[in-house]
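Exercise: predict the fold of this chain.
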Amino acid sequence: MGVAELAHVRWIAGGTGAGKSTVARILAERHGLTVYDGDRAEAGYAARCTPERHPYMCALLRTPVEERYAGRAPEEVFRAMPSLHGETFGFVVEDLLALPADRPVLVDDFRPLPRELAPLLVRPEQAVFLLPAPGFRRRVLEARYADPGRARATWGDVDPAAALAVRVARDELWDAEVRRQARETGLPVVDVDGSRDAEALAAGLAAAFGLMQRSGHPVRDARGGCSPC
């Protein structure tokens, strides 16, 4: 597979709680994009994984939700992530190649890593990694799981505060790995701390991605160029 086959794809990856889905929704509405939602697509990975090719994914599927975070060290949970070992990226590529390529596709998924994306990009600005500040992410996740039903569906019947603490620490390890790989591959990282709202982030990404306005002209920033936010 060559880079030309995915030249119409733009990628928003990075850390949990950075606002990827909100920004993706704004960009899709403004620019008529097809959004590939990684969280929704993940449900379809289970039927395609095999113990030989996807041992971490199969192990995760066998683990009850109550045991995925409770009583485990953040480093252990981090090292068990299938995406850290490249097990999910092939599914993403397969799904993208099956979609029509007549208009841009925007991937909204935390799982892709810079070292996986770099060989598939025509230019580095086709991808961005949004990384939330630790305090910002904690506030986002605390609000997200304040609903007892949502917390139970995610953590099972365990102490949600303890599970969330492990999750936040795991996500900090993930962010550090993303940042390290992005530095090595030269792919752009955007730090998210709440100082800019989703509209501002979307405007910057539209320029960086070279997306077309409804008029058919590329989105440009205030300086007349297409640049990351």
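Check your answer against the key: The radius of gyration is 18 Å.
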